[in-house]
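Hi D.,

Good news: the full-assembly prediction came through. Inputs first.
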Amino acid sequence: MTQKVGIAGIGHAKFGKRTDATLRELAHEAVTRALEDAKINVKDIDASVIGVACEEFAAQVSPAVLVHDYVGMGNKPVFRAEAACATGSAAIQAAWSLVKAGLADVVLVVGAETMTHLGTLKATDVIARAGDTRWEYPFGTTFPSFYAMMANAHMHQYGTTREQLSMVSVKNHMYGAMNPYAHIQKAITLEEAMKSSMICYPLNLYDCCLISDGAAAVVLANEEKAKKISDTPIWLTGLGAASDTMMISERETLTELRATKIAVEKAYGMAGITSREVDVAVVHDCFTIAEIMAYEDLGFCKKGKGGKFIEEKQSYIGGKTPVNTDGGLKSKGHPLGATGVSMTIEITKQLRGEAGKRQVNGAEIGLSHNVGQIGQYCFVHIYSR
Amino acid sequence: MTQKVGIAGIGHAKFGKRTDATLRELAHEAVTRALEDAKINVKDIDASVIGVACEEFAAQVSPAVLVHDYVGMGNKPVFRAEAACATGSAAIQAAWSLVKAGLADVVLVVGAETMTHLGTLKATDVIARAGDTRWEYPFGTTFPSFYAMMANAHMHQYGTTREQLSMVSVKNHMYGAMNPYAHIQKAITLEEAMKSSMICYPLNLYDCCLISDGAAAVVLANEEKAKKISDTPIWLTGLGAASDTMMISERETLTELRATKIAVEKAYGMAGITSREVDVAVVHDCFTIAEIMAYEDLGFCKKGKGGKFIEEKQSYIGGKTPVNTDGGLKSKGHPLGATGVSMTIEITKQLRGEAGKRQVNGAEIGLSHNVGQIGQYCFVHIYSR
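Then the structure:
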């Protein structure tokens, strides 16, 4: 049980409206880059974990082998991970377990999703059916409305403002503009963010993440293999996971995600660190309020102070804890299955010192935080050089 | 890495046309029995792995937390497994990895599916879309037609007969009639089996497994906990997994499932046994030809001799290797996500000596074989007392 598990290769497909590629082709684009980065052949890999969130988006029941086969994995074992919007991080955690359990030495993790072909309204409806389809969805709940409830509660309880929500969007678009793989590479002003059309009060268009197509891939390996494959392996030293009630109506509070607090506590404990030691983080900003709650629930600031945290630019590079230096779901995009794997890639780049203009100087410890549904899934991973 | 992983509790919901229960209610029925069997409380469990194969059957995107929450797992980690018809065994293998990797000591595995509400034709169409929806499904492939191609090839190459196919059905219905959890508890004659209506030549109605609702649950634990919880822990000593091409048109042969051969070789190797030492097996008899191929691919008889194997009753209790003593998918039913977990339950009962009229006397080593799609997934597990 003493072997570490590390990231030995990373590959990112361009996120966006990818009418040029199918699900398996997007995955192939990411895998090819991951193999190039690791300088290995697909033959060197023992098994795959494929994260595709939704058969309806894929237009394919049981979609994982479509990817596994197309990228050349042949007869090797394949596992599908699915955890709604946290599918990619569930895949990372499943792969980590396979390696740690000794069932594989080197595992390919692929996250992929195609969504834009359905259009925004239909895609929003598909995602809404990740809410309880018997007891909540029939009454009109959607994910913008779930998070709008949380935003209203947070504003009411802690005085968080619409300006502060928009500030999250401005930051993430600024970093997204520096990320060549981001869906929308365009900086926006606070005025633009504030004036965009209302989706579900208090969340307007710029408070909501994108509907995107995309894929991301990483090679995970045990300590021996990771060191052999990579000159700069990044170690996954802490893993936390937690869940919450299926229905929002059964939550005790709307101003925090309980699953985040439980998952991060486990992850910090396992890695032997505290929130203060995190040099860079990627968090689940499906809506701007989600990033503000994440600051608090991950311990970057006190409960209720998330709005102040962004207002003081503490989540910018140079601030206390730089967050979503890749543009986040907001600007980079959120192809469900790919997102968690893409988070791992950003942290890996930061800890390798390969993040270019977005580099957090001297970053040694990173954190990724990926939420499925409205906290029915939460995965937190801690990474170190 | 020296700790074994064992089965410390089992619970089976009745398979059948369960108009009385929803997905989560079926799961609850199985989990309640598993906890009773283990004599533990849900509070004693660290995490869950939920196997639900298909969001379309569940009428729920991301269906796992629906179950996890309803059975009382609360904020604990939840993972969904999905591997088409092998979903249940993928869940077992994921749970085994979680325990072995040290992320959990005691894991609840639940497999569940509701299918009958869609009706046979619609359900068959949903399953057909687990085949490649771009390159094969549009041309009319369904799972009966995939397996009919294999049956025709096997008959042509090895002289396997329609009578031999029907004999598999007769055996499995005989054992299913002794299983109180089976969907159809009715013995049939060879004449009845032979005369049933043709579905896709050479497979007639009695060559095809059932469309069923159902759930099954097991408690998996590390060695220390398993021994503490159960007086008769059953150990999972060998695990194998493999895959194959997404398209049947790319297979080199139709008379075997390559994934079965690779997965079983790994599982035997890991457990340190050969096929001769298997006292009882449950195999994936989605169609009768699949059971005949399984005899061969698992090494119970030589290639091409599977027809002879059933004709000589070698797969009956008292024969060389008793197979599908619980009635198999054919008679017990095949609620996709539940099947693999149900397989684990039957082997556990056999090795505990609790299989009643279906008991294989003195069974010490068991095997389960679960196939997803047409061998895109195959999981083989070896169990011992």
